[in-house]
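Example 3.2
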Amino acid sequence: MAQKPSIPKGTRDFTAEEMARRNYIFDTIRDVFRLYGYRQIETPAMENLSTLMGKYGEEGDKLLFKILNSGDFLRGVDPALIEQGNCPALAAQLCEKGLRYDLTVPFARFVVQHRNEIQFPFRRFQIQPVWRADRPQKGRYREFYQCDADVIGSDSLLNEVELLQMIDEVFARLGIRIAIKLNNRKVLAGIAELIGEPDKLIDITVAIDKIEKIGIDKVNEELAERGLAPEAIAALRPILEISGSVDERLASLAGLLAGSDTGRLGVEELRFVTATAAGLGLRAELDLDVSLARGLNYYTGTIIEVKALDVAIGSITGGGRYDNLTGIFGLPGVSGVGISFGADRIYDVLNTLDLYPESTVSGTKVMFTNFGEAEAAASLKLVMQLRAAGIPAELYPDQAKLKKQFSYADALAIPYVAIIGESELAQQCLTLKHMASGEQQSVPFDEIVNTLSL
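Structure, written as tokens:
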């Protein structure tokens, strides 16, 4: 017996109905991106590993899907590495390319490679899949789509404010209630200085970014394992637990970080972004989260994360400011900021809350039955007229029993069936049946477009 086929864990098939729903998400996001003047680009699914490695931190590098070199991939590999089972060193020799982990690093590579063809500040959006060798679980996949918008070549914090407006508009259109959480990498750097561990910023951010998943006690254990002194860990906890309104927490941070130039600048940036965005009347809840770190090493300023308020799921959008990501590719001093919508998690949220409009999964509006060659020929002409008028229509391809043809229309939720038999053909009229009510009406051939346009 043949083995039942399957797909890799962390990936999914999508039916026609599911794709209609996903396209509703993509179209909504794409429309907002274009509304704000962002232009679409695409980059390859695979990049050179030299482009990807070292940009996401130690943990991110472990989650990169590496592509085995084609041909005799063992040629030139040190046999001792194989015997030792030295996987990192082996991977460096066996793999030259990898599947992209996100869309931001490939975008930075794109900007540098095409620097003479683009105008700064450059606004781009990208809707493509990415891959991560993560442990699959609810809301976390190995293959998933990101919908990114970035503006690069501008230091202005107005870009951050505009990105918050875009987030607000997208989720308002989708009907999802959200909270937008903000922090600033400079604030985190100032905190590292304050607790006496300025050289441990990456260790601190990687650990505290897990507070929501594993809790503060487990985070403290990880900080200790990463070499932070007990007194530093003790000093960090009350800072992460600062409470009050956004303004009150900013005031507390400003006092705590008064001795850190970097930390003070981060607080001022947060104050400008939150105050300006709030003054524009965002519908979303705007919050400050001092523990928000988003473990990616390339962030240097504002950090953004979006949570759905009515569904327990991870972040559904994230992003932030990166001041010199292009510098690692030979174009220093170019600042950028961007956001990424997690389309797959948004899809799960919309499914859970059943927020799709009824029109989302609509396909064919009318199906013509097939009773024979002459009837099918007449139907094809009418199908062509309907399609020209923007009305989705199809002809059942085979001469089959009427019950089978009706069952097909029912299964696909086609609202109307047009029947053209021998008598209808002679009278140049068709019988139009509304499938939900069972009502039928006779419609002249030359009136079918107007009838179905109502």
